[in-house]
Amino acid sequence: MEETSNIQQRVPVSIQDELRTSYLDYAMSVIIGRAIPDVRDGLKPVHRRILFSMHEQRIGPGGAHKKCARVVGDVLGKYHPHGDMAVYDALARMAQPFSLRYPLIDGQGNFGSIDGDSPAAMRYTESRLARMAVELIADIDKETVDFSPNYDDSELEPTVLPAKFPQLLVNGSGGIAVGMATNIPPHNLGEIIDATIAIIKNSEITLAELMSLVPGPDFPTGGLIYGKSGILQAYTTGRGSITMRARHTVEKTLKGDREAIIVSEIPYQVNKARLVAKIAECMKEKRVEGISEVRDESDREGMRIVIELKKDVFPQVVMNQLFRLTDLQATFGVNNLSIVQGRPAVLSLKETLEHFIEHRREVVTRRSRYELRQAEAQRELVEGLGMATTDIDRVVATIRASADPEEARARLCKLPLRGLGEFLRRAGRPEPECTEADAAGDYFLSERQSKAILEMRLSRLTGLEREKLAKEYGELAQTIERLRAILGDEHLLMNVIVTELEDIKTRFNDKRRTEIVAAEAEINVEDLIQEEDMVVTVSRAGYVKRTAASVYRAQKRGGKGSVGMEAREEDWVSQVFVASTHSHVFFFSDAGKVFVKKVYEIPQAARNAKGRAIVNFVGMDPGEKVAAVTPVPRFEEDRYVVTVTVKGQIKKTALNEYENYREKGIIGVRIEEGDQLLVAALTDGAQELVVATRSGMSIRFSEDQVRATGRATMGVKAIELDEGDVVIGMGVSGDGRDRVLAVCERGYGKQTAIDEFRKQSRGGKGVILIDASERNGPVVGVAMVRTTDEVLLVTDRGQMIRTKVSEIRETSRNAQGVRLMNVDEGERVVAIEAFAAESEPAEGGEGGDEHLGSNGHASDPIPEA
Prior knowledge:
Structural class: alpha+beta
Low-confidence stretches: 433-440, 839-865
Largest sheet: 4 strands, mixed
Oligomer: single chain
Strand content: 15-25%
Number of domains: 4
């Protein structure tokens, strides 16, 4: 006897193949069934199921709101076997006016806020379909879309909604699937409908013509879109980056002399509470100067974020800094990915609308076929009832002669009726061509007509009811003709789609909320800032400030000066220079890094103010200190940055190598251990340099003796130093500067013609610059000047004096010089700065003690974004 075995055969499968197949199946399930919207109705399955469920439960705009828990439960039980919070979150988002441009759910209760507050529990909130949502579901009962079994084959659900408008673009969508994501911005309904109609009327329409109708996204939170290049790219390729900015105005505060920035609209998907907290953090950490207070005054009337400014602060400068540091400026990355014929695809604007139009063509065609069948069936019944009422006596006689309803129905089907022509005339329809049957007056009822006659009420036999039947027959005949014409003529079919779109636009369109501003129209903060000379002072402890040069009116030499920076025992001014508000400033750290800022970004302060710590202002690392500061008017070709260290090392680097600076600084110079950077200057590569030492020595040599090297180099020797001596500064010739100005610690100084300093080779001992006697004290500064220049001297007690070079006596190299500034016992000059004179008459007298007046403007500008 032959044995049979029921052992199941096992087929070996490669684990790589199995993982690949299983993962792809899972990925496509997530892509198609959960995370990516359908291009036709613009909905993900969960949103489609929520709307359909509410439609089935008749929770519409004309009825009462129902508990969200009821809706969620129905969706979970019938269509969406996932977590209840996933369904509720999707429902809540469709009710949020700050999330959807046109909400699809009319919510009642707490559905969350733009501050990031979560919706209340579903047992507390209520909802119903919004009127816009009804237009997505309209005609779903007319066989316009396909239905498929739900997860357990117990119900049927639509695979797509009929959607009378392009929901995908109108409300946008966002989702993360497996290996891909979608992020589609919302648009204005009227603009999208206009573009759809334009494509219907002209299939060859260009993108430029479409963008004249749809200039860009229209976010529910309003705001501004900066630049059209990102929009153009997104509409062309389906991918692009759109820059969004908050809308703001400037108001005067109750304090009168101050202003406040009022933010009324913020970028889409930005959390307002976090935004306000971030602005407050920037203010507290002094990353943004000029803000005195931030508060949120938003209420049900609208959004209102108030940013109060300090006195004389320029609002646009503050805003540009906030744009850079906070979500007042944000980016929307467009990725127009949707499901097209069961597959994910990235579409352009025109392609997206073309797929919607094709969907509407199919919906209207299927709806017309359904309505035609219904109209023809109804006309058949009305025609039979009309014939019965016309020949009622014979019909009644036939029914009375029948034994039962079944016999009556059969005998009616065989009964020849007369009066078709009369009925058609009452209905306003043309009589049919005369056939043999018509001539004999024969009209036979169908089974449906016979059954309808048997069920007809006697009230239908009145004259008024007969007229109604005739009128109904005429209307049905017209409807049938219209539907047949639509199905037989593509042009008429498309006109139906256009008419319905125009109706949607008429009922639901509103004004655009988001303003689109061309990139070239962006405000250049630098253009808004007056160009004027500023005195920039740097203290030994590393504080910086700027003050208008006009504050320091010229005095004759020997004056007492005015208070420049409040003196402290542990700090004094170590460097001062004059530069335009539009100039760059290079801040070199002792670690060899360089940080670049604009002069107008430096905090402005009064003469005697301390200023702000440079390490915080430029973002230096902990432990770094400022070693040298130099102004740079602009980045130009054939310009160099020359640096000198305390030990006499000199280095030259092309200015353009610093052009691509970063917020966190770049390498500027390499410093030998035990040395430190002293000074940095801007040159043209063909100037003469004078390097001076504390003991009164100097060396003059041509700049071309220093070969240009990269930023990360150490340089070469400039001067041979005696034991204990150090370099205190460097003068650069050019632009008629043919005088060497030297200033000593006790306020004495002199100017000497440069020709008295013989040219030497770099690295020599040099010659005497000034007699650093006991009366004069050590040399503290050197500069190349013209006789028309002015010079600013600063003491360690914060006193400043501005005087003309022409008032300083010209002497020989080894002379002691004359008194430039009176200094008290224990006080010493610590820094000098020479600059071109203004056409301003000198005031005060020799030995005068006139304090210089202020221009009355003190502000704390914020760096440009």
